[in-house]
Amino acid sequence: MASLLGLHEGICNHFSALVPGHATLFLVNPLGYAFDEITASSLLICDFDGNVLAGKGIPESTAFHIHARVHMRHPHAVACFHTHMPNATALSMLEGPPLRWAGQTSLKFYGRLAVDEYFGGLAFDNSEGDRIAAALGSADVIFLKNHGVMVVARSIARAWDDLYYLERVCEVERMALSTGVPLKPVNPEIARLTFEQMESVADEASQQHLDSVKRRLDKLGSDYRD
User: Fold this and answer.
1) What is the rounded CA–CA span in Å between residue 216 and residue 222?
2) d(C-alpha 60, C-alpha 38), whole Å
3) β partners of residue 151
4) Average pLDDT of the chain, as a whole number
5) Among candidates 35, 161, 46, which has minimal Cα distance to 109?
6) Within-domain flag for 4
7) Residue 222 — pLDDT band, cuts 50, 70, 90?
8) pTM of the predicted structure, to 2 decimals
9) Residues 33, 41, 12: CA angle, nearest 5 degrees
10) Which of its termini does the chain have fewer beta carbons within 10 Å around, N or C?
11) Which residues share a beta bridge with 54?
């Protein structure tokens, strides 16, 4: 679904998730495959030392050095999705805050964002992964300036839901900014109230969203499950 919606960039973006029951092992996509080529059986299982314990191939180097360090350092990062999706990446390239809290849907992320202001080049070693993990802190979403975004969550459903809506929010904000008219932010008290309302149903809503994705994919063909 990430492929169908254009939430990817060639073979350079990565989804990972801890293996259920194994806090030091994670699933990740293999090097060289676009999202629409990947099926369940093509995923790799890796440990935090870079060893591939199951699956054919190896993880892309930057995928391992970012995802392993985030999973290792953050218990809330059960799922970790990193993309260069176009609208969110566009906002990561601008000076100042990436979101201005001017639309209802953006308030889903109110108080949940971190911003990494210091692009450090490609993550070819653990130091860049550690730096990104430190910048994430307790946030669920981080804008990596001049790079892209990363979403972490306690479930795959929550990570998917956040990734999807983050790109939609960024698309609408980019369109609003393109008019040249100043944005009208929501009052902070109302923004906080709206976030709390959304958060109260977020677990159920995100699972329903993921279930919908599976039904839509099954209509197109169930080979992704293979």
Assistant:
1) 10
2) 14
3) 81, 141
4) 96
5) 161
6) no
7) confident
8) 0.96
9) 20
10) C
11) 45
Answer whether residue 165 is part of any domain.
Answer: yes
**Structure tokens belonging to residue 22:** 């194994």
Query: How far is it, in rounded angstroms, from Cα 30 to Cα 45?
Result: 10
Q: Domain total for the chain?
A: 1
Tokens coding 37: 């080529």
CA 95 to chain centre: 21
CATH number of the domain within which 43 lies: 3.40.225.10
Query: Given strand 148-153, what is the order of strands in its sheet?
Result: 52-54, 44-47, 22-28, 14-19, 79-83, 148-153, 141-144, 113-116
Contact 152, 79 (CB under 8 A): yes
In a domain, 190, yes or no: yes
Would you give the distance in Å from CA 149 to the centre of its chain?
6
* CB-neighbour burial class of residue 82 (10 A; exposed 0-12, middle 13-18, buried 19+): buried
Note the pLDDT tens digit of each residue in 16-30.
Answer: 999 999 999 999 999
**Percentage of the chain lying above the pLDDT 70 cut:** 100
Could you give the angle at the alpha carbon of 57 between the alpha carbons of 53 and 58, nearest 5°? 75
Which secondary structure element, helix H or strand E, spans residue 23, and what is its range?
strand 22-28
Range of the domain at 25: 14-225
Q: Residue 125: pLDDT band by 50, 70, 90 thresholds?
A: confident
Q: What is the model's pLDDT at position 124?
A: 87
Say which residue the tokens 């990972």 belong to: 16
- Is 1 part of a structural domain of the chain? no
Q: Enumerate helices (H) and strands (E) in the chain, giving the number of each.
A: 6, 8
The tens digit of pLDDT for each residue in 17-67 reads 999 999 999 999 999 999 999 999 999 999 999 899 999 999 999 889 999
Q: Are 94 and 24 in contact (CB under 8 A)?
A: no
